Structures are given as structure tokens and as C-alpha cells.
Amino acid sequence: MARTTRSKASSSSGTKSDSKSTTPSNTNSKYTLSAESSNPPKLFILPTKATKDARIVSLLNPRYAKPTRYLVCPETGIYEFTRIAAPKSNPRSWLIECGNTGNIEQKSSEDSAELSAYVTKGADLYVATPVDPIFLLLPAFADQSGTVKDGKRMFVSSDDHLDSIRDASPHLAEILRWGKVRTLLESRMVAMCDTAEAGDETMFRFSEDKLLAEILGKAQKMCHQPLPKSMEDKFVTKALEAPVVGVRREDTTLSSVTQETQTQAPAQPETSMPTSEASTPKVESESQSSVSSTETAESLTSEASTAATSVVTTEESTTTITTTTELLPTLHASPEVIKLQRLRTAFNFICSCYIAPAQAAQLSARLTSQTPALVDFTPLDSYIEEITKLRQEAAATRSMGDYSRKRALDDEELADRAEKKRKKDEEEKRKKAGESRGVRDLKKVNTVGMRKMSDFFKKK
């Protein structure tokens, strides 16, 4: 009987498994997703005044000497792309619709439909902003060895200058065929070169003084108003902030005065009316009336004696003396020093974004050593020297007196630390995901007291 029961159960289970396997699954998606693209679409914001003839071309980047994408319009000029991205700690993505996906059901068959949309990994946004063509021409003047003769630079045509970067800029020859773009480039070349007429053609010779004056003028335009908040706080406010060495602490003093005044109240004379009323006996019981009259007289006498008591008055007065806390910095930056610091910050920012490091170093040296100087940074330099000495003295006294004080971290250091922590967490998750279940279980085994495998292979 037991064998019969087992055989029936096994046969029934086999029948159920066959029925399950023959049942069609409904896991197929209605939409077909394409594979990941090696060149995914990007989101651009282009200016409205750009014409239909505008093209995205590859030109040599003046800072990094590598081909970079630019938007060139024959009518409105040249634009660079500024990348705006979400922070790495908070990743985001874009859902981009590349066609009319509203009528998917009508376009495709009944079984499947093709979804013409993309989901990008990063939410990067590229905004086209105008750029001065003078920066795109700087790589053509980086190497002037071919235009120097007997220690002097020679006047060379614009084509000879541009031929030096034609190979590194794939589309430079194409945009030079546009008449307005060529005219724009030559007009900006005049701003940083000495010119000489040779017949119908204009010849150009590079001048560091003209380039320095041009970049300094751009920096002065930036300083007409305060810099962006992040730049203003980091490179102007904090850079010119002097250490605080004097602190007036808050002191509070409480004084209380108590005054007691004692007054004697006069006693009131006895009244005869209650006594007469109490002493008037009733005709019905003479003995009771005599007793009650005696008790009433004694109670009235005691009330009159207690009326002559002393009254004490207490007066309290409180005096509070408070001094406010006030920070006393050692130095205050004058408006002239703040303006000079903004100008230097703007100049360094332009050089770090659009000029090669070697050329930027030459311009900075020429700015400080040129006579007569275009801008006198002497007040700023003297102020920075003073606050540097004060900071060193304050740091020395603080380190001698307080050993428990921790160094405050900047925003960049905090961001770097958060980035390193995030990468470490991702690496640990990746390692844990690659481990098998057996390896994870072996890590939980208590190996205290166990011998290692190397112990068995030691020399006896």
C-alpha cells in the first residue's frame, strides 16, 4: 500500500510539472529595447540667433591643445559648449524622445513595438555660450621659432600663421572658406598683433603687450560687479580675511539688594455696643445669659489686642551689567585692496581657462614686471604679506596652547573625502557581488585555535 501511494504521488507530481512546462510564459516585453550605444545622444541648448548654416566643428583647444567641439555660425560668431552636470554623489539621467512616440501602436505590429527614445546614464547638459575668437588663435602663435630672424620677429600673413594649426584643427580649413568667419578671425588677430600693409595683404606680428592689455581689459570688465558667489567667497573674502586675535567676552553681573521696613499699627478702642448686646440677658434663663456675656467680653478683648500688630514690607532691587561679545580682527581690507584682489582673480581665471600654461606664466610675469605697470598691485601684495605673518603667528600660538583643536577642512577636501568614500563603498559592493555563497559562508567560520595550512609545510 505504501508503494502504491508513492507511485501515485510521483506520477501526479510528474503530470503537474509537465503541465507547468507546457504552459506558455507571458514574460516577453511589448517594447523592444536596443543595445547600449557607444555614442549616445547628448542634449544641447543652442542660441536662438544662430542661423541654420551653423555647424558643430572640431577646433584646437587653446588651453589643452586637443580638438574640442565648437559651434560656428557664419552670422553670429563662434560658441563654446559649457558642460553642466549633476554631482557624482547624486547621479541623474535623461529620458530623451527622438521621434513621435505617441503613435507607436499604429506604426508597429501587434506583437511588438519599437520605442524610439533613449535613457542616458548622465544628466549632462551642454550650453552654447559665445567665446572670443582671439583665444582660438593663440595656438597659432605659441611657437614663433619659424617667424624669428636675427632675434626679431617678422611680419607674416594670416594664412602662414593658421597653417601651423591646420593639421591639429580638423575643420579649420572648412570654416575659413566662409567669408564672414575669416574676416572675424583676422579682425581679432589685429587685437593681439602688430600689423603692416604689404600691397593688398595685411601682415601680422605677435605682440605680448597687446595680448596682455586685451586680457586685462576682459578681467576689468568682470570686476565691474562682484564675482559669482562661489568665486567671491573663496578667492576674495577668505583670501583677504585677517585672523582674529582680540575677543571681548560677555560678562554678566547680578547684584540684589533687599530692604525691610517694619511699621506698628495702633490698636482700635473697644466698642461698647457688642458688650452691651452680649451683656443683655434674656428673661427666660438668667444663668446662661451671664455665662455667655462673660465669654463674649473676653473674646472681644483678645481681638482688640491682636489688632495692634507689626506690618513688614520687603523691597528687592536687581542690577544686571552685560557686555556684548565683539570680534576684533587685526586688519581690515580697504575697498582698493578688494578691487585689486578681484582683478587678479579674474585675470587668473581667464588664463586658466583659455590660455596654455606656458603662455599664461609669461603673461603673469609680464604683468608684474612691466614698467610702467598697467595695474599697481603693491597695496594688495603688502596687505597679503601682513596677514600671512599674522596667520603664522596665530597658528604658532594656537599649536602651543591647544593640542586638541582639529584642522578645519575646505569644501574641496570634504568633496574629495566624500568621493573617496563613495568609490570605496562601490568597490566593496562589487567585491561582495562577485563572491560565491561558499566564500561568504567560510568567512563566518570561527578559526580561533585552528592551525594554518602553512604550518604543515614547515621544516621539521
E-strand count: 18
Oligomer: single chain
Which regions are unreliable across 5 or more consecutive residues at pLDDT < 50? 1-25, 104-113, 265-312
As a whole number of angstroms, the C-alpha radius of gyration is 47 Å
Distance between the termini: 65 Å
Main beta sheet: 5 strands, mixed
**Helical content class:** 40-55%
Q: What shape does the CA trace take? A: extended
Overall average pLDDT: 74
Side by side, the strands of the main sheet go 2-9-5-4-3
In DSSP terms, counting alpha (H) and pi (I) runs of 4 or more, how many helices? 15
- SS-based class: alpha+beta
Strand content: 15-25%
Provide a brief overview of the structure.
The chain has 460 residues and is an alpha+beta fold.
Structure description:
By secondary structure, the protein is an alpha+beta fold. The protein contains 15 helices and 18 strands. It has a 5-stranded mixed beta sheet, with no helix packed on it. A hairpin with a 6-residue loop joins strand 3 and strand 4. Helix 7 (208-222) crosses helix 11 and helix 8 (229-237) packs across helix 11 (335-354). The longest helix is centred in the C-terminal third of the chain and has 24 residues, at 378-401. The two termini are 65 Å apart. Residues 1-25, 104-113 and 265-312 have low confidence and may be disordered.
